[in-house]
């Protein structure tokens, strides 16, 4: 796993070249970059960023989640049960000489800010953060507004197909700020592309971990005729899915939309029936694949990298069979138009208002 093993291999290269195996040696598994994923206590089974980052790492080496053949020799993962282990785990991985160290989420930002300058030759990647600005760190962020446009459009098209007259839609955010605004702006623009006069309500819980707040709000909104609610609120948003499940089990035609990862399974209430119509997905796996590929090609560079729809950085889920083929076809057309620039999705409330793309009176904040 450590770099000194690569030095030994380099010493053998002349022999391999003499034997006619030089090309194979240069592309052999043993010369591929090594990586360690460091996670918080939720580990790689979090159904979110950690799981997706791990999936990308495994895929890079040609393995599968069921057959991690290169684990231990090329990649591994260490989970910190408490935040006071973040810095020691970062230092240990750097001392062991991995080519790349990957962390996910803002909870690692302070630790990485402290450790990265101490190891200037060590390469790091952090997911969903854009303010750990060191030359040896790549910060991956995402065009959430683009994926959110598609799930908003999906909700509106599904309502249209269901024959719902004057459908209402809701958005629940965690703590207001620029990132969550991107989710809301994209969602609202997607809805209004189908129903220009649709009524939209929003609510910010000012907390990432209180699902009871989202559940109570979702119940009130569904009772008032809201058809679909998109939550970008961390664990708080699980309350929306819970309420949607209860009401769909009772025969109510309401929906929730998942976020960051595919939450279809979280919404299952009977057989393959799920209360999660679709999800706005961040393809974090493609970020870890990109970072490793850049190292392998000798072009790794620190800085902020935005993963857009064109980069396969954001997408929507088609896992729920209730999402009709006709709706999916329209979403795929819109996806193409976002990529080629025919559809512009505004990421800030300021810009969206100036373009007349969203209504006034929403609770979103740009800062």
TrEMBL record:
GO cellular component: plasma membrane
Protein topology in the membrane: Lipid-anchor
Top-level lineage group: Bacteria
Signal peptide: 1-19
Domain ABC transporter substrate-binding protein PnrA-like: from-to ranges: 38-347
Keyword Metal-binding recorded: no
Family under the similarity heading: Belongs to the BMP lipoprotein family.
Protein name according to UniProt: BMP family ABC transporter substrate-binding protein
Organism name: Candidatus Avitreponema avistercoris
